[in-house]
Amino acid sequence: MNERVKTVYEQLPEFYKETIEREALFASIDNAERMVVSLGALSLMSVLLAVALLPYGLLFKAVAIAILGSITPFLIPYIIISIAAEKRKNEMENVLPDALLLISANLKSGLSIEKAFLLSARDEFGPLAEELRQTAMEMFGGKPVDEALTDMEGRIKSELFKETLKLLVDGIQSGGNTAELLESSADDIRASLELQDEISSNIRMYTIFILMAAMIGAPLLFSIS
Questions:
Q1: Which of the pair, 190 or 24, is modelled with greater confidence?
Q2: CA neighbor of 183 nearest in space, from 175, 197, 194, 171
Q3: CB neighbours (10 Å) of residue 218?
Q4: Under a CB-based contact definition with an 8 Å cutoff, are residues 124 and 95 in contact?
Q5: pTM exceeds 0.85 for this model
Q6: In this structure, are residues 116 and 178 in contact, taking their beta carbons and an 8 Å threshold?
Q7: What is the dihedral of CA 33, 24, 15, 77, to 10 degrees?
Q8: Distance CA 162, CA 156 (A)
Q9: Which among 77, 69, 92 is positioned nearest to 16, based on CA atoms?
């Protein structure tokens, strides 16, 4: 990151930088500072161009620039980074049950937990494979298992992940059967994801029904009356 970008980024409010950096961590974005400054400048120029083309007076344009120009450069980078974090979270949650079952199978075969994590980091697991690989290397580097799992929890924007890893840490600390615990967690997560899909489908159906009633049914009734 060059000095100019760093200087501009440092001028941003602290709470905004903390929020952006947290979302960038969840999205696994390394160049968040450059992205924020670039997207902010691009959105600001877009606002100036759009307002300049509006067929209104100078007063209206000045007010529009003052309002949109003070909001858009902050809002657009946050939205884009948050969407990336949400997408990464969904990708990891969808493959989490399969990864847990694979880790459990590796543990039952006699492997240590760090080797089980490393051998379970398959490319088809996408972003989750990166997290498993990083966590395994931290364990190999001498970091305690519970601490490595806690650090992994802090890099993932998912309550489902946090609950699973917390349960795993508690099981390891209490000396429980880790393999069986992982299998049970995988079954619970798969059932939870299926329930979420069913709820989303029902909400989508009701939304379509309401939109059809508002856009077609209501005008039709008004025309008849």
A1: 24
A2: 171
A3: 11
A4: yes
A5: no
A6: no
A7: 60
A8: 8
A9: 77
